[in-house]
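Section 5: illustrative case.
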């Protein structure tokens, strides 16, 4: 394998994505970080403060509900969803917490999706489509599921959590401090 190297020195760079969100929250605060068109209407904006708060809240939840960055058998989380603010928060929370994000294209046929979930050995699936998850072979699914859609009758197997419900229960100040320290201490992958 050829390794391409540059003589240009990188200079300062952020060690990881979690630190980037904390730094940008502290630097840009109420400035827009993300915008999304709501049902074909106007855009909704989230500030750096909002985005970082939601990433920290979801990271705290993940670390307390199964996925474990220090256990190779429990450190992978599949995200099966279309592009949205919720997906961004989930993927960034997974990576910021030191977990492995396994993005799976939401329109894949069931057979391919089942193979990817099984091959990746995920400990949790996050999805915006309960019907799609329910249509998958239950043998390939982990016991933990998070849905990005509002609560509805549970048609999916396993323990189901809902994104909006999680965000309504932010962690206490000590947990936030611990999560921020964890983000900053996370070493970049080799």
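Designed sequence:
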């Amino acid at each position: 394998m050829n390794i391409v190297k540059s003589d240009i020195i990188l200079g300062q760079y952020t060690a990881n994505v979690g630190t980037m969100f904390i730094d940008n929250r502290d630097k840009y605060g109420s400035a827009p970080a993300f915008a999304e068109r709501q049902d074909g209407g106007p855009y909704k904006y989230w500030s750096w403060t909002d985005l970082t708060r939601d990433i920290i809240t979801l990271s705290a939840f993940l670390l307390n509900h199964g996925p474990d960055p220090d256990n190779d058998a429990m450190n992978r989380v599949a995200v099966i969803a279309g592009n949205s603010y919720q997906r961004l928060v989930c993927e960034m929370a997974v990576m910021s917490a030191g977990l492995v994000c396994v993005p799976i294209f939401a329109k894949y046929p069931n057979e391919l999706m089942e193979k990817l979930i099984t091959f990746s050995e995920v400990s949790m699936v996050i999805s915006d489509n309960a019907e799609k998850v329910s249509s998958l072979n239950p043998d390939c699914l982990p016991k933990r599921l998070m849905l990005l859609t509002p609560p509805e009758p549970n048609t999916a197997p396993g323990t189901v959590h809902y994104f909006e419900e999680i965000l309504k229960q932010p962690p206490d100040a000590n947990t936030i401090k611990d999560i921020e320290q964890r983000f900053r201490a996370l070493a970049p992958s080799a």
